[in-house]
Amino acid sequence: MLRPGATDPKGLPLIRRRTLLTTALAATAAIGLAACTDDGDGSGASDAGGASDGGGDALAGVTVSEDLGAEPTVEFSAPLEITSAAAEVVVTGDGDTIAEGDTVIWRHMYVDASSGETLQSWWQGGPAGGVQVTADSIGQAAFDVFTSMAVGSRFMMAGWQQGNDGQAYALLQVADVDRVVSPLRAEGEPGSPSGTFPAVTLDEDGAPALDAPPEGEAPTATVREELLVGTGETTRSGDYLTMHYTGWKWSDGSPFDSSWERGAPFSFVQGEGQVIQGWDENLLDLAVGSQVMLVIPPGEAYDQGELADETLVFVVDILDAAPAGE
């Protein structure tokens, strides 16, 4: 999990890496997305149960309930040995087939393969989850299954997650695919920005740009302005929030990070310290479909790395907000 101040090997602050290994593993905390492989290569061939990396035998010993209206029950003889990544469909959905590049949202649970203990479950108040379906992000084994799976399906995956202690933990993930995020840009009605900050222009795909560098004294507390006002559900703490964003330095107006350039929306659990304070506290109570500008001072952004002491300007499109279970 990358919190404010975390840096990559070059010393650049990060909000989160685009990988399935993103959050700390702990029975009392969100454990993020179960990984198919530690390095994400997931190479392997398909079998009758789906796709695997030789780990199909592990899933063959697992039974998952098929009632999509209830929390899954997962049964196996513990400890379950997972020697390679594996993934397969448990129940086939009746929605559209998932395509390469789709960003999917699911309701999920994680089970410790060594003990059979449920570590986290949406059905018990845990967060929702999701991922962009590319071979690079989820591994080839999972990619082969996902791109033959329909929305509404229940799937299971076997893999590993690295904890804060550096140890890899064997996990089973069971999830019900709820939807594909669409559209991948804000489409709200025009807001009423103050005019204090640079105007924002959009390209054909919706990616934002500033029409001029910021001027004058930077604010000392985060300022939020709604550029577009959406009509969807309102974001709340605990939501699995999916968004597009671009960030610029106040000092010279130069861009330093953009999910648009990576071609992949960014997701995190709102209000759990997974991102900078200026995001965690100021992306609440917004309708999905909104676009906001956040001007964030250093104390609510990064305190080390290249962006230390920089006031940052973000333009954020709120694409989806999946609530935690109840």
UniProtKB/TrEMBL annotation:
The enzyme's E.C. designation: 5.2.1.8
Name the Pfam families on file. Answer: FKBP_C
Signal as UniProt keyword: yes
Q: Which reaction does it catalyse?
A: [protein]-peptidylproline (omega=180) = [protein]-peptidylproline (omega=0)
Enumerate the Gene3D superfamilies for this protein.
3.10.50.40
Note the superkingdom of the native organism: Bacteria
Residue span, PPIase FKBP-type domain:
238-322
Q: Could you tell me what this protein is called?
A: peptidylprolyl isomerase
